[in-house]
Write a structure and sequence with these properties.
Layout (H helix, E strand, L loop, with lengths): L2 H11 L8 H14 L4 H7 L4 H30 L9
Helix pairs in contact: 2-4
Length: 89
């Protein structure tokens, strides 16, 4: 599904979602689009002006970056104990 079609569907349906639930609904829309290989920049362009999607996309990107940073840090810790001099030739 294209981002523009998703934007149109979201625009029509979000008025039926309670205001307190829109953030979570927007996060679901973003997650579905990302899971279906939509580029964050394409989502941003298709949903420009929609604060719920903008916030959800920002949260998704920040969460993904934090997960990546944590994994990278764990990898560094795993290999910290292995020094070049510890290896036998």
């Amino acid at each position: 599904m294209s981002e523009s079609v998703a934007s149109e569907i979201w625009g029509e349906l979000k008025r039926y979602v309670n205001a307190v639930d829109r953030g979570e609904a927007a996060e679901t829309v973003v997650a579905i689009l990302i899971d279906n290989d939509s580029d964050p920049e394409d989502i941003k362009e298709a949903f420009k002006g929609d604060s719920d999607i903008k916030r959800a996309l920002s949260n998704y990107i920040n969460d993904d970056k934090e997960d990546y940073d944590e994994e990278e840090s764990e990898d560094e810790e795993d290999y910290k104990d292995f020094e070049d001099e510890d290896w036998e030739n």
